[in-house]
Amino acid sequence: MTDTAHAAHLETATGLDNRKLAIWTFIGSECLFFATLISNYLVHKETWLSGPGPFPHEAWTSPSGQLFEPIIEIPLVTLGTALLLFSSLFVVLALASAQRGNRKGLLLWLGLTLMCGFFFVGMQVYEFTHFVHKGLTLKTNLFGASFFTLTGFHGTHVTLGVIWLLTLWIEAFRGKLPPAKSLNLEIAALYWHFVDVVWIVIFPVVYLIK
Amino acid sequence: MATTALDPRAHAAAEHAEPTGLWSWITTVDHKRIGILYGATAFLFFLLGGIEALLLRIQLGTPNNTFLSPDTYNQLFTMHGTTMIFLGIMPISAAFFNFIIPLQIGARDVAFPRLNAFSYWVFLLGGLFLNASWLFGAAPDTGWFGYANLTSKQYSPGLNVDFWLLGLQILGVASLAAAVNFFTTVLNMRAPGMKLMRMPIFTWMSFITQVLLLLAFPVITVALILLMFDRFFGTSFYVPSGGGDPLLWQHLFWIFGHPEVYILILPAFGIVSEVLPVFSRKPLFGYAAMVFSGIFIAFLGFGVWSHHMFATGMGPIADTYFSLVTMLIAIPTGVKIFNWLGTVWGGSIQYKTPMYFALGFVAMFIIGGLSGVMHASPPADLQQTDTYFVVAHFHYVMFGGSIFGLVAGAYYWWPKMFGRMLDEGLGKLHFWLMLIGFNLTFFPMHILGLNGMPRRVYTYPEGLGFEQLNLLETVGAFILASSFLVFLINIVRAWRGPRNAPADPWNGATLEWSIPSPPQEWNFAEIPTVHGRDPLWERKRERGGPLPEPPRVSGKGIHLPNPSYWPLVAGLGILAMMVGLMLIHHLGPWGIIAGGAILLFGVFNWAFEPAG
Amino acid sequence: MDAHVTAPAADHEHDHPSTGAYVKIGIILFVLTALEVGLYEFTYGEHSGATGHALQPFFVPLLLALSAAKFALVAMFYMHLKQDHRLFSGVFVFPLIIATVIIVALILLEAYHFAFARSG
Q1: Hey, of A32, A45, A62, which one would you mutate to test binding to chain B, going by the most B CBs within 10 A of its CB?
Q2: How much is the pTM?
Q3: Can you tell me the ipTM of this complex?
């Protein structure tokens, strides 16, 4: 991205890099963003228009008589969770490779990170499509609205992270990610870990707590 | 003791050619230019908001008036509030953050100059988007607070609320980007020796403001997203018939909204805390207490939001909790007021325009604070809420507080920013017209409110005793408006005059007064080392007299960031995405996708262009 | 706050956990996830028995504790908060505190509202 070597010449009052401080600041702000979405989800959890809930873990009949079967597939989501967790491990290993100048290792681990991220998004897309086919959309009830909004925005954040990491992978492939520029990857990795950490909260709250 | 006037020979010989022309302004990444852009744009929006207010006051001047239809009235009062807060006070504060913070901390620029430019462009585009609604006859009309479910598709089927919620989202992006920037700048770019507890108090209060921005804006972003989903995609987050709760909007809005009012006032606190010491020739009384009370106010400010909701039936426990914490905030605020008084007490008062406005701030803010504390009691508030008493309160703190403070800052820093002194006579005339006009307009509202005049009404009947005070308020509003005419005349006169302001016209204490007026592009020829608070007073003490006029140097060897237009392109991408969202039923997702593509294009080019 | 250390690109490698440590943490994260799912199946699953039902009041706290542990591991080790300057931890933790306060407050306020103020 910008000239890291140049940035490294600048002395900062805290000794910390500007961009690293900035990404942490952004992450702190994003905590509030997701906290509000999660609050909204929790607040609306028990308040379908009618019906006993808690759909989606048990069957539910809507006021108009439509039967909704339980739709959450724990194994699939658990797989997605595992993928995201491992992707955090892989990006850490990618960063270590970048810092040591190990280009092959960097490409391998960052590539694996990308694949995990890609499959996670794929899993989300599959899950969303599956839910819609089973009759749960944004409009169906408040669970649908809150669920899709929360997980949808998280998925958007993951997608943007994939684009960011992919850009860095291409840079690495072209030999333009030497150790002096590894901070670029460190910053993207911090964002990526944050997206993982948000999922660590969403997974039990949405999928495991009825 | 003002320093000697700038030596014109030194000025001419060493002048480094600064870029000129429209393109240089479009691509600027210089915090000083961005500050001026913010200030000029915000001032224009402020005047627009003022005209909106005058129209409201004409309508309310007499009972049963038909000057404005109810519909137009609703649009005007909504836009007046939205404009004054988001397009007036906040960006004027941003103008000062931009121009002054790097100078006060001894830096050459902010941490992320292009992100800084981005924030300005997005602000401008957001303000234009919001006001474009007038062209469609669909200006937002549900109040600046947009209560659900008046804002639902059912009750507001037109474009008005869409303009409002998308416009605010655009502005939110600008604020968040700037907050990340200034937070990093203040922590990381301080000159050697400038520990946090040696920072100028304006920088401190502004720093706390950035923290509030970072934490509060995401909440309203989500609140607006949920509203947008309700309106565009048929969800029922705030719609009772779908199981939703309009009160959720109020909670989310005020969780943002209360910190927002501290965002509006803290910069003014900071400015006044700079002006009072300089014009009393005394250091700020209780610097540490001022810093910690600011932090305390900000932190507590996150815990009081439902004091805006005492009439919504939250129950005795919630009411009691919010009431107590709200009253608690009066304590650190009181500390500040006493410290301001303690600063002035025993000082050698310099009766200059900035001092007038700073003292006016203290007086007006005390009144606003007192009415605020009265609201903190739920039983009292049940009488006051939704009446003109509340309108009085928030105008006393936002105009009597924020605007008086920001105007003090304008007069104080004008010589530094533009190299010209504003006329003292006109300045004082501005002050008296503003003080009298302001109090004539807003003080009677306390009485009207307690006598039962509701707020947010486009007219009122005869015979309720509201006529005379309303007429008085309308007259007051025009006097208040005339004060800004005086200000404009002052500005134009100064602009036409010579650019000969000294570096330190007020005998200032902080680093911005140690460099030429206006500063050269790189700010400091050499980054200073700081040994305490009030570094310039310390230097003058050591020297035993005023400092010599700082020379203008050639700037060779000083590295500056390159200008860039990619921040503007990225900003246009954001605007395009929001327009795409607005047109989603006509364009499907393609508008948003196109906007996103422009944004990505802008961001990638920004990321990969050489930093220079 | 006066440190004028040049922002290092790869200076603090010495205090980083080793590759092996990172992998171990990854495995622990996986195990914790398995425990979460296992706890769910044990308490609410199709084949849950008497012990599972007895566990139901403790389910949410236990689950949240497990996810909190995962959160902490990723934050402290993968995001390097443990080895890095304390300022980063502050910048992350303070918003988390505000976020938690808001989540809890909203749940309490809306729960009251739904219990007492709504007919539906």
Answers
A1: A32
A2: 0.93
A3: 0.93
